[in-house]
Each structure stands twice: as structure tokens, then as C-alpha cells.
Amino acid sequence: MIPAFAEAIRATAEPCTLVLLLPPLVVVILTHGRVVPMVAAIVGAVVGGWVFAANVVLLSGWELRITGLLALAAIVVVAAAPYARGLNEARSPIGAAAIAGVVSFIAALWWRPCVGDELGTILTEASRSLPSALPGMTAYMLGAMAPVVLVGLLLRAVEPSPRAMAWIAGPAALAGIGLTGLLALDRHSELVGTLTRWTL
Question: Which of 50, 68, 137, 200 could bridge 183 with an S-S bond, Cβ 3.0-4.6 Å?
Fold first, then answer.
């Protein structure tokens, strides 16, 4: 499990991991690194990783558009929540956690990893016996979410001023909206292909 965790951490620097990493990272930033949404994002990624390893769901076509629209709406809601009285539930721990978990889960299903030795072994094992592959996949997804945790903890430790937080959250929201917007427009293949070329 440790080699899988370490490989995932190394992979976070690769462009092909962006589709997995950016959406939960954006939500964690927009929720100011609060613990409950951050934990929900990690759980969503792990569960999404299990579904990915099981190879029972392969999003394509209209499914990518719908999940792209869903994630886009979720990011817009959590970004607008501090400024809109009608979005109080999105500011609550449960509401923010639900958004973070769903966005992170969806991102795991969008993901097309540049497979390393450890992940390749895990996915091969999953095709033979999914339960035996779950511990390794869990370790991999936890490693992949390490930057999300680090950013969340940094925000909690530093506690930026509202003005500084606005400067951080604004670009993060735009990045999330841009990525999810591309997927809502059915540009998944082009996006993944470009990120893979940048990785190689």
C-alpha cells in the first residue's frame, strides 16, 4: 500500500492527474479548507476510485455532459454561497460536504490516469478480484488527494483575511468552472488527450 500511496503522490505533479485533482481542490478552497468538506472530498475520491477500478462505469457522451453540468453547478453554488442569502444550505457543513463529496466522486470517474507500475498492478488485480484490489486503490486515491489535504490544512493554519481569500477563491472558481464547462461541452477526449501529451 505504501508504494501505491507514494506513486500517487508523484503522479499529482503530472498533467494527466489534473482532471482528478482540480475539482475537489477548487471546492476545498471555496469552502476555506473546512475539515468536513475536505474529508468528504477525500471519501468521494476513494469511492470514485473503487468504482473506477471496478470498471463498471465508463462515462461517455451525454453522461459526461450531465456530470459536467452537475459539477459546474455545484462549483458555482459553493462559489456564490457567501454572497447569496438563498444559498445558506451550501454554506452549512452538511451542504458543503455533500457538494465536495459529489464533485470529488465525479472527478474520479472523469479521470484517465497515466498508469504507473503500482496503479497498473492494482487495476490488473481489480479485473481478477476487486475486493483484493481495494486496499491498494484506497492507498492510491489517498495519495492522489494529498495536495487537496495540504491546501486545506494550509488555509486552516494561515486563515487568510476575507480580502486575501477572495483573491484565492476567485481564480480557483474560474479554473473549476473552466474545467467542468469543457466537460459539459463534451470536450473530455480533447482535454484528456492534451493532458496526456503534456505528461509524455
Answer: 68
Q: For residue 88, what pLDDT is reported?
A: 55
pLDDT digits 0-9 by tens, 44-71: 999 999 998 888 877 777 888 899 999 9
Inter-axis angle of helices 162-184 and 18-30, to 10 degrees? 140
Judged by DSSP in three states, 8 sits in helix
Spatial distance between the Cα atoms of 197 and 195, rounded to a whole number of angstroms: 5
Angle CA(179)–CA(61)–CA(180) in degrees, nearest 5?
10
Other C-beta atoms lying within 10 Å of the C-beta of residue 19 = 22
* Gap between the Cα atoms of 190 and 8, Å rounded: 23
140-149 burial, b at 16+ Cβ within 10 Å, e below that, comes to bbbbbbebbb
Q: Is the pLDDT of residue 82 over 60?
A: yes
Alpha-carbon Rg for the chain, nearest whole angstrom, is 16
**What single letter denotes the amino acid at residue 29?**
I
What integer pLDDT is reported at residue 25 of this predicted model? 95
Name residue, grid cell 481542490.
25
What are 60's three cell numbers? 461517455
Give the model's pLDDT for residue 56: 80
- Give alpha helix (H) positions in the chain: 2-11, 18-30, 35-54, 62-80, 88-91, 93-110, 117-128, 130-144, 146-158, 162-184, 188-199
pLDDT at 119: 87
